[in-house]
């Protein structure tokens, strides 16, 4: 009502405050003086509202300000006569009866007049409420005599005062009623009204009055990064954030409208306020935060709303496993830091809210080329969307990117990373400091299941990296001293110092497994075949893979007791194969199943490459040592609709995947329906097939030229729906076979016999 008194009304106007309706019975709007008499349409209560200092409302404000100054210096006021006349006129015209009880309210100068009117007419007053009003200390006796009283104390007056900031008006004189000091730094009635609405909402939601004051005044008086501005803006910002959770204000965005909507719709919830003096850890600690508390922490809200169903909470529940115990602990540190003046060396960056503390100096490490910032530990918190983190802020960085397909690329420091679910790429190759120590969780660290796993890429630094890939088809690019700690499902691949690890066969003399691609790579397994620690040596460099399963051929690393075969399956994918590509792919599966059948119990080591050709697109799809990995590769083969078949070039591409002197017998299976367009290269193919080392020294990645392993290649031709007898020369001269089957089942029978022949001589 005190706020509404500043607005001009017509008699009989209806004013609504929330669900309540009030009728305007009388209003007087003189220069410097305005008062309105209202009647509660439901209870018939009469309320007298007296307008206060009008500096922000009209050009008459100068008169009101002068009146306030006179109150402070002389204890007198020009508007007392106006008030007396206003009241007398209402009685004389019958609008009021001399026996009517009034509720009186007023702000500033209006509150002063309300006090004066009340002490002179206590028998006519139910109660009086003033807001930031001057006191009556020093009031002249002549002014009291005007109202026929000399008593200046009343238990019917409540004086509500804003306690923060400088308020000259309420410092003038002594308030004669009960003083209630609330948070507030402004004299304006609008600001004070908003603050009181906040008090009412908070108290009705379970917060005591002192806690509300500590919250509002605490944020106003304490330098912080959470809530800034005036007390009214702090209250307004808090209500807006609360409504994002509650969502029951029907689109209202003003603090008064939101609070009225809650009251009108009977919206109930429990509220905890976190003030700058609160213990943050008391709100955000433990291994299992409630959803309301977690939401407050994630969004850096200094309050917790509980006891309500919220769409915001339902959304958070979808990702609750992403927030590990370490995330909660580190985010609570950021929350605490935001509550206070930043300390030198502080760095926190929260992508969810956009809040950031950056108080550091950039320096260069004298021992290496890494540039970092002078901070003990930098904390970076991502979102459940696709985050990109490229900052290397300090010598120690703790990074959480949660769900989404995230990219983390760092160039310095020692790092602790939780990338969360999704298909993440973690690239630490830019870190050249060999003393760097990094721990990388590419999936949810504390996940209880694999539903949120992703296909991650983890690229290590020049230092020591501990890599946790979790579930999913993960790619590890590791270096010296690195540890692959726990790949939950064993699906994926490992590159060690640029070499793809495929496994190898047992060497009795060296008592280890020797890689069949690179003889300088050696594997030692400690433990049993179901689970153990695999140590991989490459020269003087070491990689450790924990929880490795030989039985499951974890990470496509196949350790076998005998040497098997090295196969290249070469498939024509030009347009003429449109009707036969599925037959070709099924034929490839039959070959692979026969070859890998002996791999399944680790008795033999074999590998198969897939090559496709169409026009000038001649490429290796991949090389595989397990049937599951091969299935993924063959499923990615499709028609490319070319018209030129460079079959000889494709055969040479297939042989480029073979490793000389690795003891594996070598074969190619070519599947095509056309005679080919580069048959002039047939002699080149035959020369290569007779001895891989002839003219291809660049391919002998680890060749020991003194060895006498068989480096010849058998070429098998599968002619699909065509008479390709000119290819038969290739199979005849290399000891291979030529097939022109009448049916797929006939071909499968022949392939079963063929692919189980020709084992290693060693």
UniProtKB/TrEMBL annotation:
Residues 566-754 form the VWFA domain. Pfam families: HemolysinCabind (PF00353), VWA_4 (PF25106). Keywords: Secreted, Signal. GO terms for molecular function: calcium ion binding. It comes from the Bacteria. This is VWA domain-containing protein. InterPro entries: AB_hydrolase_fold, Hemolysn_Ca-bd, HMCN1-like_VWA, Serralysin-like_metalloprot_C, VWF_A, vWFA_dom_sf. It is found in: Secreted. It comes from Campylobacter portucalensis.
């Amino acid at each position: 009502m005190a706020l509404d008194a500043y607005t001009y009304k017509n008699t009989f106007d209806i004013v609504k405050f929330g669900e309540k309706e009030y009728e305007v019975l009388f209003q007087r709007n003189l220069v410097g003086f305005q008062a309105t008499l209202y009647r509660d349409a439901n209870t018939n209560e009469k309320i007298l509202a007296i307008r206060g200092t009008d500096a922000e409302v009209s050009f008459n404000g100068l008169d009101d300000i002068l009146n306030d100054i006179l109150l402070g210096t002389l204890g007198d006021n020009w508007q007392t006569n106006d008030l007396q006349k206003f009241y007398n006129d209402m009685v004389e015209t019958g609008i009021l009866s001399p026996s009517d009880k009034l509720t009186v309210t007023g702000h500033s100068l209006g509150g002063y007049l309300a006090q004066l009117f009340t002490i002179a007419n206590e028998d006519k007053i139910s109660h009086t409420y003033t807001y930031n009003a001057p006191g009556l200390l020093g009031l002249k006796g002549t002014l009291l005599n005007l109202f026929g009283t000399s008593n200046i104390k009343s238990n019917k007056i409540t004086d509500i005062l804003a306690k923060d900031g400088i308020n000259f008006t309420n410092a003038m004189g002594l308030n004669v009623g009960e003083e209630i000091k609330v948070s507030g730094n402004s004299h304006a009635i609008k600001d004070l009204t908003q603050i009181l609405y906040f008090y009412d909402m908070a108290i009705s939601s379970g917060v005591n009055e002192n806690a509300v004051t500590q919250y509002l005044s605490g944020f106003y008086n304490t330098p912080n990064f959470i809530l800034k501005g005036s007390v009214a803006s702090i209250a307004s910002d808090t209500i807006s954030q609360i409504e994002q959770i509650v969502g029951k204000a029907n689109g209202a965005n003003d603090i008064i409208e939101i609070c009225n909507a809650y009251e009108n719709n009977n919206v109930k919830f429990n509220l905890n306020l976190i003030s700058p003096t609160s213990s943050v850890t008391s709100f955000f600690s433990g291994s299992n935060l409630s959803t309301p508390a977690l939401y407050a922490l994630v969004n850096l809200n200094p309050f917790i709303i509980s006891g309500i169903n919220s769409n915001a909470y339902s959304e958070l529940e979808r990702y609750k496993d992403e927030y590990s115990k370490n995330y909660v602990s580190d985010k609570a540190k950021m929350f605490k830091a935001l509550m206070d003046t930043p300390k030198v060396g502080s760095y926190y960056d929260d992508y969810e809210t956009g809040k950031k503390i950056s108080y550091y100096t950039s320096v260069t490490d004298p021992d290496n080329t890494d540039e970092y910032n002078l901070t003990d530990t930098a904390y970076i918190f991502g979102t459940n969307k696709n985050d990109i983190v490229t900052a290397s802020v300090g010598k120690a960085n703790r990074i959480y990117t949660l769900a989404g397909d995230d990219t983390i690329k760092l160039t310095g420091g020692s790092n602790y990373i939780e990338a969360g679910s999704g298909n993440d790429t973690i690239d630490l190759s830019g870190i050249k400091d060999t003393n760097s120590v990094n721990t990388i969780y590419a999936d949810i660290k504390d996940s209880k299941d694999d539903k949120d796993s992703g296909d991650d890429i983890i690229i290590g630094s020049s230092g020591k990296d501990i890599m946790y890939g979790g579930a999913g088809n993960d790619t590890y690019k590791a270096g010296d001293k690195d540890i692959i700690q726990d790949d939950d499902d064993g699906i994926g691949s490992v590159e060690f110092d640029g070499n793809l690890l495929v496994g190898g066969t047992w060497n009795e003399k060296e008592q280890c497994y020797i890689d069949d691609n690179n003889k300088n790579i050696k594997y030692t397994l400690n433990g049993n075949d179901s689970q153990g620690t695999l140590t991989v040596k490459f020269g003087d460099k070491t990689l450790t893979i924990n929880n490795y399963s030989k039985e499951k051929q974890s990470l496509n690393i196949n350790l076998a007791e005998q040497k098997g075969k090295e196969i290249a399956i070469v498939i024509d994918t030009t347009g003429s194969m449109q009707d036969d590509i599925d037959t070709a792919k099924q034929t490839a599966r039959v070959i692979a199943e026969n070859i890998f059948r002996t791999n399944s119990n680790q008795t033999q080591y074999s590998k198969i490459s897939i090559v496709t050709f169409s026009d000038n697109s001649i490429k290796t799809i991949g090389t595989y040592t397990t049937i599951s990995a091969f299935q993924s590769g063959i499923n990615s083969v499709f028609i490319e609709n070319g018209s030129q078949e460079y079959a000889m070039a494709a055969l040479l591409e297939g042989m480029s995947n073979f490793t000389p002197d690795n003891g594996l017998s070598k074969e190619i299976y070519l599947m095509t329906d056309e005679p080919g367009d580069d048959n002039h290269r047939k002699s080149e193919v035959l020369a290569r097939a007779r001895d891989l080392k002839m003219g291809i020294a660049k391919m002998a990645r680890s060749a020991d030229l003194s060895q006498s392993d068989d480096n010849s290649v058998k070429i098998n031709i599968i002619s699909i729906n065509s008479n390709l007898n000119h290819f038969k020369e290739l199979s005849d001269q290399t000891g291979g076979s030529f097939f022109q089957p009448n049916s797929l089942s006939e071909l499968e029978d022949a392939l079963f016999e063929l692919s189980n022949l020709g084992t290693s001589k060693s």
